[in-house]
Amino acid sequence: MGILVLTNINSFPFTWHYKIFRHVWSIKIRLLFYKLTLLGKSRETRKRLESAWLDRLIPIGSDPWGCGTVVKKFAGPDESDYNLHLSNSSYPKVIDEARMITAIVTFPNFYRVGGWTALGGTHFSFYREIPMFSNYEIRTNVASWDDKWLYIIHRFVSHPKKRKGRAGIEDKESRPRNPASNSVPVPILHTPALGTNTPSSSQSLLSPAIMEIIAAARLRSEEPDGAMLNCVAVSETCFKIGRITVPPSIALVMNGISQPPTGTPYSHENPPPYWNKVKELTSDPRAIRAFLSGGWREVPPAERWWEHALTGSIEQTRKTNLELLDGLRRSMEGAKALY
Questions:
Q1: Please, what are the domains in the chain?
Q2: Which superkingdom does the taxonomy of this entry point to (predicted)?
Q3: What's the average model confidence in pLDDT over 106-113?
């Protein structure tokens, strides 16, 4: 009975909820213990120190492409299929936790003022199975955004077991000998020209943008650290304040993410020039809610400081990646008209 329970524990009621919300509870519990250390101080002092504690969670000085997370997972029997590898239905379930961790790490200040995120879609492309009883990782990075959607890339990877060949030389099992496998850095999407490796049976249904993504992922079947690529997923999420959609650029800048300076890197001690505007807005609950609820539309384009903070190389990379990822979204929308 004990073995049966352990092998199916990931499918127990509320297990999914625990895995998703434990990361939020962890922050709340840590904050609670910190508040206990402030007992005896004045109300103003407690409020100031609590705010400073929460501010330290904000990734001030980061660029969008550096906001990545890694979640380590295990392919248990309850998440595997009759082929003895991770079931296709398990990928969407485990990716929820990776998406939640990335959101908490990257956008804590947006959640702090009452914002939330909604999932618009997730697209998967499978390349190599993840065997049952094996460890794997979900590597998540921000890839691009437009006026509404934030695109997130999830890469499922595993580390092949090493085995000794006939001459006693260690070799990684099933590793492809591809000279171009390490040529594509994460998270920027560089795609080679389409070739014979592109599946011809899908060309009539998928756009060139999707085919380029698939071709690039098939070419790069190995991560820079030697991990094998098993699956690539793209999530599109949007930011909400109540029922109103907030542009991703605002959510990014609210968390100190900006174009890196030419001199000293931005940090909590050396925040971006616009940070005073963020602090001023977030210090007044009514002001920040009015701004996020549509007040940003009233700001003239030349004075939209949140857009000016994401220019230069960041804007170039955003546009390059968006050309591919937006094509994916349009193709899936077009698929509704096939039948």
A1: 57-163+185-337 (3.10.129.10)
A2: Eukaryota
A3: 94
